[in-house]
Design brief:
The chain has 3 helices and 12 strands; from the N terminus they run αββββββββββααββ. The chain is mainly beta. It has one domain: Thaumatin (Sandwich). The chain has a 5-stranded mixed beta sheet, with no helix packed on it. Strands 2-4-5-6-11 form a 5-stranded antiparallel beta sheet. Strands 9-10 form a two-stranded antiparallel sheet. The longest helix is centred in the first third of the chain and has 14 residues. It is globular. The N terminus is likely disordered. One 2-acetamido-2-deoxy-beta-D-glucopyranose binds next to loops. This is Thaumatin-like protein. Keywords: Disulfide bond, Signal. It holds the Pfam family Thaumatin.
């Protein structure tokens, strides 16, 4: 085997085989998309700022390295960065930093519907999903160009959000719906059947049936994570050799 030639070929492939991601705002309102990469897990980051403004009906495409790991994309609503930019600059999904989310600490403030990605993970598979584990704010659908699975939460969960979970903007409109975990309903985040923590930190000790309001989320959005261990119905995998391009659409 010509090792050196193979390595050269692989290097060339790695450089040219970045994926194209498109973030499309099909909502009737402005969304401020955000990207966060857990740099404790992987160093590869998308070729796109960590936050931007997306007017209604617009889309932006950018390159994402083939080995993007532990990445998430979400939308922020009702943002105003003109004073004191930071996590409270948006009604939902705000982050440390302001318009640009801090690369190290700029995860979104719940509730926020997430699109999560690890490309080229174990078994040469892309892993991706739509997650309501941190609550929900905007409907999201993740499509691809190679016929792999399409996770989504297309229902506006704000409309009938259970009162104990509802998050309102300053005008009193419900703009987000916390999960039972992010709402801290049981008051013990370190040992919580809603958060799957402490003595509830395995799939067998944290069944969905033990999570308050699980069925509200799962019935509306069966292909989304409605709690931490929803992998069987919510984790989507795609052969990484297909080098899928992905589109994240808000309000599909
Ligand atoms: C991702 O791939 C690039 C290009 O091959 C490489 O330089 C980088 O080290 C990789 N990053 C990780 C986290 O594996
Ligand atoms: C992924 O696709 C490649 C190329 O078509 C194929 O060789 C490989 O067996 C596939 N892997 C899986 C897990 O299906």
């Amino acid at each position: 085997m010509k090792v050196s030639a193979s390595l050269t070929a692989l290097t060339i492939i790695a450089v040219v085989s970045a994926r194209t991601f498109t973030v499309k705002n099909s909502c009737s309102y402005t969304v401020w998309p955000a990207i966060f990469t857990d740099l404790n897990v992987g160093s590869a980051t998308p070729d796109q700022p960590t936050g931007w403004q997306a007017n209604a009906g617009t889309a932006v495409s950018f390159n994402v390295p083939d080995n993007w790991t532990a990445g998430r994309i979400w939308g922020r609503t009702e943002c105003d960065f003109s004073s004191n930019p930071g996590p409270t600059s948006c009604a939902t999904g705000g982050c440390n930093g302001g318009l640009l989310c801090d690369p190290h600490t700029g995860t979104g403030v719940p509730p926020a519907t997430l699109a999560e990605f690890t490309l080229s993970g174990g078994g040469n598979l892309d892993n991706y999903d739509v997650s309501l584990v941190d609550g929900s704010n905007i409907p999201i659908k993740v499509t691809n160009n190679v016929g792999c699975g399409v996770p989504s939460c297309t229902v506006d969960l704000n409309l009938e959000c259970p009162t104990p979970l509802a998050v309102k903007d300053t005008s009193g409109k419900v703009v987000g719906c916390d999960s039972a975990c992010t709402a801290n309903l049981d008051g013990n985040p370190a040992n919580s059947p809603n958060c799957c923590t402490g003595s509830h930190d395995t799939p067998s000790t944290c069944p969905g049936s033990g999570v308050a309001f699980y069925s509200y989320f799962k019935t509306a959005c069966p292909t989304s994570y409605a709690y931490a261990y929803d992998d069987p119905s919510a984790l989507v995998q795609c052969n990484s050799s297909l080098a899928a391009d992905y589109t994240i659409e808000f309000c599909p």
